[in-house]
Design brief:
It is built from 22 helices and 2 strands. It has about 475 residues and is an all-alpha fold.
Length: about 475
């Protein structure tokens, strides 16, 4: 296991070098400037689209704007918001959160472009069904000479969609919050039992396809965000005197980091500040998945004939996911002081914060959130993985992915957290490369589409419609 941990750590470090940072953050900034800071100019309009003001049941696609966003959010709002943030702060201190914010703001423009392209260049699978996602906008938008990027994305997408971090951290939460406090000896056998239960629950849902996934996600995601939001606000209210101190520390420690704990991070980008930036961007990408390419697969299935409209809905994802949910988690961990304990197992650290603030029941309320976060993520990732396999092996073979998916649940529940998080970090990096390259090349076409869309909006307003 120690050797496996070393291999996964080297894999993650290799993937997350300076070239990927330039591609993700530099590329995202380029898209932000190219769109003339569209996320800020059209934020209000995006909310109106999300609320269904422009929905048309006759538009092509499978699901509504709202269900597309909640399906995408059910994968991004997951353990990245609970364990990923906790891990970032445990290693990098409060300043890590600032760089996660930067990742989210830049990620808004990235998600707008990638999800707009997912509608602009929808392609047909081997069954003749309309599909969206990076593999399709690469093939349809860039042509056959770039198909190797589509194949690269789909191959790593199948691996990146495996729910190994979510399952691992759900297992850890069950062990820490329910089993160990009640005197149960945690072992390989108890972990296998947890895995078996998750396999049954997941199988029932994923075999129902996208519509069942989106129906469940559209109900679960809003409720879990509200519940988690209320619980963290209670923690912040109980520790209100500490909130201003740590909120400002997020800014001060972002440029003068004094809490970076792991030496492995210090060797990157030539110093402590560079290491902190890398840590924040990496955890931000794990949390909101902007530029990774997963969200466009959900948004590509939206019922709309206006690509820009779906892009605007998609850009709300990093706001909800990172700027709101991750910030709440970070503040809860900081104000309760548990971040200083040195525990690098993400969900355990967050559980300590809830227990510290609400002794006796806080950790059980977190357990409800963790369960819903994890289960909803399991459903969406299965859909993403099957879409990738469908592209590579044909739609008639996509059901075979379910067996790979189920095996990964068993593996994740019996493997160390460090191995799983390093594995997914590395895979996400290799998914981001084809997604961002294609998006940057096709970006001018999105800008043209945006001009057409804004002209239509102005025309409708002038006609009083």
């Amino acid at each position: 296991m120690e050797q496996l941990n070393t291999i996964s750590e080297k894999f993650s470090s290799l993937a997350w070098g300076i070239p990927l940072l330039i591609l993700l953050i530099g590329g995202g900034l380029y898209l932000l400037v190219l769109s003339r800071f569209l996320p800020f100019r059209y934020f209000g309009h995006a909310i109106k689209v999300l609320r269904g003001k422009y929905d048309d049941p006759n538009d092509p696609g499978e699901i509504s704007h709202f269900k597309a966003l909640t399906t995408a959010l059910s994968s991004t709002i997951g353990m990245g918001n609970i364990s990923g943030v906790a891990l970032a702060i445990a290693i990098g201190g409060p300043g890590a959160m600032f760089w996660m914010w930067v990742s989210a703001i830049v990620g808004m423009s990235t998600k707008f472009f990638t999800s707009t392209l997912a509608i602009m260049y929808r392609g047909k699978d081997s069954n003749g069904d309309l599909q969206g996602g990076p593999m399709y906008f690469i093939r349809e938008g860039l042509g056959k000479h770039w198909k190797f990027l589509a194949i690269m994305f789909s191959f790593f997408g199948m691996l990146g969609a495996l729910p190994v971090v979510n399952v691992n951290q759900l297992k850890q939460a069950i062990n820490d919050i329910i089993l160990i406090p009640n005197g149960v000896d945690v072992s390989f056998s108890t972990n296998l039992i947890i895995a078996a239960i998750l396999v049954v629950v997941t199988s029932v849902v994923i075999l129902g396809g996208l519509k069942r996934i989106s129906n469940i996600a559209s109900k679960m995601v809003p409720s879990m965000v509200i519940l988690y939001f209320i619980l963290v606000l209670i923690i912040l209210c109980l520790n209100y005197t500490e909130v201003p101190k740590y909120f400002f520390m997020i800014f001060s420690d972002a440029f003068e980091p004094s809490h970076l704990k792991e030496e492995n991070y210090r060797d990157v980008l030539g110093g402590v500040l560079g290491a902190l930036i890398l840590l924040g961007i990496k955890r931000g990408a794990f949390s909101n998945e902007a530029g990774i390419g997963t969200a466009p697969m959900a948004h590509g299935a939206a019922k709309t004939d206006e690509p820009v409209r779906e892009g605007l809905v998609a850009m709300l994802g990093p706001v909800i996911d990172t700027l709101i949910v991750c910030t709440l988690t970070a503040l809860a961990i900081l104000v309760t002081g548990v971040w200083k304990t040195g525990d690098l197992n993400g969900v355990s650290l967050t559980a300590s914060a809830f227990q510290n603030a609400m002794p006796g029941f806080g950790q059980y309320l977190l357990m409800i959130c963790v369960f819903i976060f994890s289960i909803s993520s399991l459903f969406s990732y299965a859909y993403y993985g099957k879409k990738c396999m469908s592209f590579l092996a044909g739609a008639h073979n996509k059901h075979y992915y379910n067996y790979i998916y189920i095996l990964s649940i068993i593996l994740a529940a019996t493997t160390k957290f460090e191995v799983m998080i390093n594995f997914i970090d590395g895979i996400f990096a290799f998914m981001a490369i084809p997604t961002m390259i294609a998006t940057i090349i096709l970006a001018p076409k999105v800008v043209k589409e945006l001009k057409v869309y804004t002209h239509k909006l102005k025309t409708k307003k002038s006609n009083g419609r």
